[in-house]
Design brief:
432 residues; alpha/beta; Rossmann fold; five-stranded parallel beta sheet; two-stranded parallel sheet
């Protein structure tokens, strides 16, 4: 039985802002935020001293993201500033990536062999599964600090540990975000050493659903879903090659040169609706697909979005948040059921949430066996150490209540996801 502290967000729909939150919002009210492509790219070039962004097709996607954000009439200036800063960071990373590939074309020769790639709804156990596997040091994974700046700045010492300047910058950013939204870590902790999802790499190509978590952007959602993502998943593969190159230690470029990288383990919920582009670019991957009751997923997801909204929206539109994310979850699931059957059966394994939570080590043993990887005594020790240090509810456990918070009845939602329960009856709440 969980002994985690139970946390109920009583002011979810009508936030009582802290002094820090009020000050941060007030300090941005008079700022002129230029949500246009030229402003973002100019800031990125000033940050890096570089000018070559590579294939300029990304500019259309960036413009669409910025237009969509500008259309979010709910958003305050703090929210707009956050989006602008994020886009500048992504454009800066793109400049550094293009520069690295220009100076080191051998990066393209690095093989990404038999990666383990996790896909599943947000809040369905993908993070726990990824971090468990990543505890085995035989795998290559990407900590959050590295995702924020995959390529080091010229002349920076690359130690790939807590001495790395990128790690230190990530610590400062985490401390700031934790002060602003202290309950985030109870729902989705993103501390610098947390093994992060590869959507941050897709963001550098401005081709992901990340923006949907930052703003109300149905326009961007529709644009993204209307375009084939196969080339952007090719960019993701290039990014894994880049990260593999910079996985050594030393000064700047001297850190690179690892042409025989470890086996990658990655995850992103977005993969659930992009399984074919994922498989096209990673044909020898093992695909782990997590499954959880979508009503539970919605409860957690919508609460997370509503909580994050307190610093970017003067009014929390609970109905709109519910409608948007119910639709988004349904789209993800329908795409998964459509496409998962086209993946090679001997490379695809379901990870069902209740079974995973009941005995996570047993499930991970099944993953190793399915993937043809030996679970050595050293690896078991590493996984056990991770579990001991990162038990569920480490930062408290949020108490979710979709009826009180969103005015929704579970039975009404049940009918919406009946198509999914038919495929995974073990998740059907009426049979449990």
């Amino acid at each position: 039985m969980s002994t985690a502290q139970k946390i109920r967000i009583e002011d979810l729909s009508n936030p009582v802002l802290s002094e820090l939150q009020q000050a941060a919002i007030a300090n941005t009210e008079s700022l002129q935020i230029n949500l246009n492509v030229d402003a973002v790219l100019m800031a990125a070039m000033e940050n890096t001293g570089l000018t070559d962004f590579g294939d300029e097709g990304f500019k259309e996607r960036l413009a669409e993201q910025l237009r969509s954000t500008a259309e979010d009439t709910w958003m305050n200036n703090f929210g707009r500033m956050s989006v602008f800063a994020t886009k500048v960071q992504q454009a800066s990373s793109r400049l550094r990536v293009v520069d690295a590939l220009s100076r080191h074309p051998e990066i393209h020769n690095i093989e990404i062999k038999r990666p383990i790639m996790i896909a599943g709804l947000p809040r369905s156990g993908t993070t726990h599964l990824l971090n468990m596997l990543a505890a085995d040091t035989r795998f290559r994974s990407m900590p959050h600090w590295e995702s924020r700046q995959p390529v080091p700045a010229p002349g920076e010492e690359v130690t790939h540990d807590q001495r790395d300047p990128r790690f230190q910058r990530a610590v400062q950013a985490y401390q700031g975000s934790d002060a602003m939204l202290p309950l985030m870590k109870s729902m989705h902790d993103m501390n610098p050493e947390h093994i992060h999802e590869d959507i941050e790499l897709l963001d550098i190509d401005f081709a992901s659903y990340t923006l949907e978590w930052m703003a109300h952007v149905p326009r961007w959602r529709d644009y993204y879903l209307a375009h084939d993502q196969t080339p952007h998943y090719g960019f993701l593969k290039t990014m894994l090659q880049v990260l593999s190159y910079y996985s050594g230690t030393g000064i700047g470029d001297a850190a690179g040169g690892d042409l025989a990288p470890k086996q990658w383990v990655t995850k992103t919920p977005q993969h659930l609706e992009q399984l074919i582009p994922l498989h096209t670019n990673f044909p020898d991957a093992t695909f782990l697909v997590t499954h959880r009751d979508p009503i539970e997923v919605f409860s957690s997801t919508a609460t997370l979005v509503a909580y994050m909204s307190r610093i970017r929206n003067p009014i929390i539109h609970m109905d709109e948040i519910a409608d948007y994310w119910l639709d988004r979850i349904e789209r993800l699931l329908r795409a998964c059921l459509r496409d998962q059957q086209m993946l090679p059966a001997d490379q695809t394994m379901d990870v069902v949430f209740p079974e995973f939570m009941a005995d996570d080590m047993a499930m991970v043993r099944r993953v190793y066996e399915f993937s043809g990887i030996s679970l050595t005594p050293d690896a078991e020790h590493q996984l056990a150490a991770y579990l001991k240090a990162n038990h569920r509810g480490k930062h408290g456990q949020i108490v979710y209540d979709i009826e009180a918070d969103f005015g929704l009845k579970r039975d009404a939602l049940y009918e919406r996801f009946d198509f999914y329960y038919e495929r995974y009856p073990q998740l059907d709440p009426h049979t449990q």
